[in-house]
Amino acid sequence: MDEKLTIDLINKEFKTDLALVNYEFCDYDAEDKNYIVEVKNRKEFYKEKLIECIKLFKNFQNSQIKNKDFLYIVTDEQGVYIFNISKKIDTIISSKIYKTLQPETTEFYKTKKIIKYVYFLDVKLSKQIKL
Fold first, then answer.
1. Is residue 9 within a helix (H) or strand (E), and if so which, with residue range?
2. What is the value of pTM for the model shown?
3. Domains delineated in the chain
4. Which end of the chain is more exposed for a tag (fewer CB within 10 A), N or C?
């Protein structure tokens, strides 16, 4: 699944009007009048979903400035997980931050890895769509 298919699925399922952002260097992938959205499409299933701390805080701040909720959407082979970060921020930031070695970018053909700080998100904090 790619970002466009993910956004189309969310629009159909939840009657939102999300559109992909056309600015290459935007901090998030899509928005409508109520939400800003970051999408992570994963090829493999991971029990816990992770979000980089820098993305969480930057987009949470963006959502407050725009008076919208920040949704973080993760897809994998088992489903779609929709986290309303704005509604769950206190729970998330009260959990442990982990230091991980991750690819520099999501373009995995680049082999350089860097340290990233992340939160692991419990799927119980999400709405789920089974595929």
1. helix 3-14
2. 0.92
3. 3-130 (3.40.1350.10)
4. C
